Amino acid sequence: MTARWDHGEHTLVNLARSTHGSTQELGTLVKALIQAAEPLAGRFNGAGRAAFDAFKANADRITADLNAGLGSVNTGQIGMEKAFSMGDQTMADEAQSKMGAANFDAARFRTGA
Question: Within a 13 Å sphere around the CA of 54, how many CA atoms are in the beta-carbon half?
Fold first, then answer.
């Protein structure tokens, strides 16, 4: 059985747009998480409190790292779209060229005279 991946013409473009939008939302969600957890900060001590304080202190770096990671995914999606589009066009051009050079009349089978 041969596996094949068939994607629509705009699938990767739409995926890249969606990823870009998610990247923009991610920073907002991390900050909202910190704000939502803030009332709980006074309720625990020790290692839990230290971990929360470290997360809060590094929130901007964490957000930047997550955004950079999603940005790299987005760049890859855009590159894949370009590669698929170029491959599709190259295949169509080559097929058109081969058909133009083919002698279809020679391939016809004729019976009787």
Answer: 6
Which residue type does 67 have? N
Token representation of residue 28: 């907002």
Rounded-to-integer distance, Cα 81 and Cα 15, Å = 10
- What would the two tokens of residue 74 be? 């987005």
Q: pLDDT tens across 31-41, in order?
A: 888 888 888 87
Residue 12 near residue 81 (C-beta atoms within 8 A): yes
Residues 33, 54: Cα–Cα separation, whole Å: 14
Under 8 Å between Cβ of 62 and 55: yes
The span from the CA of 60 to the CA of 62, in Å, is 5
pLDDT tens for 76-96 read 888 888 888 898 889 999 999
The percent of residues above 70 in pLDDT, for the chain, comes to 87
DSSP conformation class of 104: T
pTM beyond 0.85, yes or no: no
CA–CA dist 47, 57 (Å, integer): 15
